[in-house]
Inverse folding.
């Protein structure tokens, strides 16, 4: 079902569709339409239909989408019909918030390890995790086979940590450090930097 | 200089260019090229030249870009040649991390107020801020004239808080709650949801 040729920008919208559909489902709704979904998300109904049509036929004309079925299909397409282990590197404010974050439940992820290089933090409890020594990243993560990591260290350390994670076999990095990092072609990288988002919006402010 | 017709996807790349240029500048570098910038960012040199050309002539053929000048120009274009006041609503893990976040310095923003609805938190110190009562959002923010807010409340409260912020005159919302929210056409909205970014990447994982 997965077509390697689907543009990345389309792939990037699927999690938004899934989140909205899961919310509708939790609220007891059973059927929706591309119109309704579009209004919730600020995306045109035509765009949603076109995006979904790249992966199959999910609705019948006139009757809309069965939400439960579409949720299941999107979870399969996005490979979140399972639970992925995720490591957090950096137990500062942001790393701690991520280690305790409740928003991953039912969305395919659970944080299983937290690392920091600060001797005062190593061995301490963070949420339900014991903070481990960053010096052990390569060994511990390789052994555990974890493929996904969130980087929440200072900008100056981000590239070094990314290199260690990649050496450990991690293939998906979510970088919270406010800096660019370089990764090999087979590693997926996304950034979360609030200043980037805010600057995008101040462009439009007077 | 600002052209209203520039596509939003181009605008969204400018903060990435600015961040990389500021890093180069801090490291003492004076000149760069679209090739070098492209390698750092994983964006083609042609795309960078095309994006920048929408706003003017910033480099001479063969000599590259003067970093300090390009930083100044991008700051003007993005309206971050000033410092914007930003409010944080929600003093949980994420809101607290945002209130103390060091990554806004030199990037055009400072957090000036933090709100929460929990009586146990109101009046307490969070970083350099006293947590204020969310019931006062409309009055306090209207009086202060703040235009930018970050929402870090539970998903169930996000729409209500967004409505209050909009009533208070806020025009740019950065939403950390893991839910869609609806805003009027003249309000800018961006989302930060780590599960969305992770699901985008698990699409490509086996």
């Amino acid at each position: 079902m997965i077509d390697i040729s689907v543009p990345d920008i389309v792939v990037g919208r699927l999690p938004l569709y899934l989140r909205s559909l899961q919310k509708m489902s939790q609220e007891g709704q059973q059927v929706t339409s591309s119109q309704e979904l579009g209004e919730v998300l600020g995306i045109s109904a035509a765009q949603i239909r076109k995006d979904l049509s790249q992966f199959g036929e999910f609705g019948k004309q006139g009757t809309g989408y069965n939400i439960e079925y579409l949720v299941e299909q999107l979870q399969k397409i996005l490979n979140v019909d399972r639970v992925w282990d995720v490591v957090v590197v950096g137990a500062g404010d942001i790393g701690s918030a991520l280690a305790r974050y409740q928003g991953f439940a039912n969305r395919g992820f659970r944080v299983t390890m937290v690392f920091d290089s600060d001797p005062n933090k190593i061995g301490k409890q963070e949420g339900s995790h014991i903070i481990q020594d960053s010096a052990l990243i390569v060994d511990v993560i390789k052994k555990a086979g974890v493929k996904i990591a969130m980087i929440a260290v200072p900008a100056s350390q981000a590239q070094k940590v990314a290199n260690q994670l990649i050496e450990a076999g991690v293939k998906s990095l979510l970088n919270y450090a406010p800096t660019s990092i370089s990764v090999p072609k087979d590693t997926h990288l996304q950034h979360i930097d609030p200043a980037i988002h805010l600057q995008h919006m101040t462009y439009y402010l007077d």
Remarks:
- Chain B touches chain A through 62 residues (CB under 8 Å).
- Residues 12 and 78 of chain B are 10 Å apart (CA to CA).
- The longest strand of chain B covers residues 109-116.
